[in-house]
Amino acid sequence: MASAQTKSTPERSLTEPPTGQVLLGPREGFVESIETNVALITKRIKSKDLKWVELTIGRYTQTKVKIGYISSIADPSVVKAVLHRLQQIDCDGIIDSSYLSECLNPDPVALYAAAASEEKPDIVVARLLEGRVAILVDGSPVALTIPHIFLENVQNSNDYYGGNAGVNLKRTVRLLGALIAILLPGFFLAVSLYHLSIIPLNTLATIANATDNDLFPPIVEMLIVILLFEIIYEATLVMPKHLGSATSIIAVFVVGEVAASVGLLSAPTVLVVAISGITSYIMPNMIAQISVLRFVFCLVGGFLGLYGLVAGFIFLLVYTASLDSYGAPFLAPFAPYIADDQKDALEKVPFPEMIKRPRSIPNCNPIRQKPLEDDHGQN
Predict the structure, then answer these.
(1) Per-domain residue ranges for the chain?
(2) CB within 10 Å: which end of the chain, N or C, has fewer?
(3) What is the pTM of this model?
């Protein structure tokens, strides 16, 4: 008598991703099953133009990878370039999509990733409809989309599901928050060390009183506080949830209250780093880059003052503008300036007015929708 043995792989239920929470809109998130993730996309895109190419990568893991695109929208050259890059990978194994993200980056030491990471199928579908290519990895709840531009970090799901009220302000706040996170510690050091004349007299007296008995030089003190906040952040990530909040509160109390009150650290430095740390979470997909840049500009501002800070920021803009993600300029539609794409940049117009797809993303079908007729039956 023959016996049959079946295997069933445990699968996590669909939940809302922790980094993609919305007030309105879909709440489904990707899981670790590639078949489920493909189904979440195909239930939203029912067109036969949605194509999937399957690859197996990894000598030992034999990881299944699927590349999705809409054939009537995506630029064939981008699809070909992505497939060629993935087919060149010859390694022991692929554990997560982040492994592929590094392999897809032409410059292994680039500050920014060439592929965007996303945990929500509705956002991946929106990017497919703009001409991007999606990459799903079996065992990973994070999808990759290519090309990737900086503007994606300024945009948010809530911008599209909650109407246009306040969207322009929110996007401006996100961009300003990222700049504050990167530049504020360096600016504070530059002003307090080299440009005291631009500080109001009352504020200068307050800072002088708070830093009068500092044990460390200002630059060293700033670096110590930044390091302490990075340690708190890393500890919170690995702590169990029921301990993470308590640990954060205790750590902030010790650093912010006790250390400042006994004179180990100055209150202005702790406040500046705290503001910088909080605003860095305004772009969750760029926390790593913001942390690196904050450290670099802290050194630049501490040693070279405001002139060095301005020169360093200009260099950062030039470097960022020179990057290209599979045919899409990283700073598009600002550099180069693309007038049509400004309808969904810092300013967002109503959806019926977005007639064309973004020119920032290479595609072969620029028309997104037909204009709606007005009350008199005219376009």
Answers:
(1) 15-148+338-372, 168-322
(2) N
(3) 0.85
